[in-house]
Design a protein that fits this description.
- The protein is α/β, with parallel strands linked by helices.
- The chain has a single domain (4-210), classed as TIM Barrel (Alpha-Beta Barrel).
- The chain is built from eleven helices and eight strands.
- Helix 1 (18-25) packs parallel to helix 3 (48-58), helix 5 packs parallel to helix 6 and helix 6 packs parallel to helix 8 (159-168).
């Protein structure tokens, strides 16, 4: 198990709570940020651009991704141009398909050709990665977000998919694969093992970074203490029957 200092995979913070983003931005381990409409709604965001500009003030120097909102490719293109204008380090999240299942390849190709940095999101299959890679340009920075956590939710091991995804974009020096939607901190080390470029995680996952390498015996003792403290705090009681007591020793 490598230490955090030995990790090759870059850690991105995923979320839309500005206070949490401020905390994450102060952590030198965090190399970038991602957001999405679901996380924004959960965080109570009501004005997209106001939120985005506040986030950019917090993160002025690292990659940060904001997603288009439309389901129409022409409107997505206009939204992408507006989002890209917010900063040179901004990446525009484009869903790999619209809600009708129509591939966003022509839009991705057009945006990339115009120099827009994209983050293609919602990717779960190698076929999708292969089709997206054809639309990207070697000299334009881009991300392909493979939702490894959602792959794992179906009972499939995401590591082979991510490993092959990295190979599929290997001819594109400015393209990077993101391990998206991780479920646990172990995924950071799995992403590193398969050579993934980036893993983006919420604060719930990244908050466990101080536990890396911790002694398991200490973790066991802490667990036992937690159960005991919670039982005392709840004032639980188990009526005893002396005749059924177990003799120890």
């Amino acid at each position: 198990m490598p230490s955090l200092s030995e990790l090759r995979v870059k850690l991105f913070a995923d979320g839309a709570d500005l206070r949490v983003m401020q905390t994450m931005a102060a952590n030198p381990l965090i190399k970038g940020f991602t957001t999405n409409p679901t996380l924004m709604r959960k965080a109570g965001v009501t004005d997209y651009e106001t939120f985005a500009r506040a986030a950019l003030a917090i993160v002025p120097d690292r990659p940060i991704s904001f997603e288009v909102l439309s389901d129409d490719f022409e409107e997505m293109a206009a939204q992408a141009a507006a989002i890209a204008s917010w900063g040179a380090h901004v990446f525009v999240k484009i869903p790999v398909t619209n809600t009708k299942g129509e591939f966003a390849g022509p839009l991705i190709a057009a945006l990339t050709a115009a120099g827009v940095q994209v983050n293609v999101t919602g990717v779960l299959t190698l076929e999708q990665v292969e089709r997206v890679a054809v639309c990207l340009l070697p000299g334009v920075a881009s991300f392909v977000s493979v939702f490894a956590g959602r792959i794992a939710d179906t009972g499939r091991d995401p590591m082979p998919t991510v490993r092959e995804s990295v190979r599929l974009v290997s001819a594109l020096p400015a393209a990077e694969i993101i391990w998206a939607s991780p479920r646990e901190l172990l995924n950071v080390f799995q992403a590193d093992e398969v050579g993934c470029h980036v893993i983006t995680a919420t604060s719930d996952v990244l908050g466990k970074l101080p536990l890396v390498g911790r002694d398991l015996q200490e973790c066991s003792l802490d667990t036992v203490r937690m159960f005991r403290q919670d039982a005392l705090a709840a004032a639980y009681d188990i009526p005893l029957t002396p005749a059924r007591g177990v003799q120890i020793g």
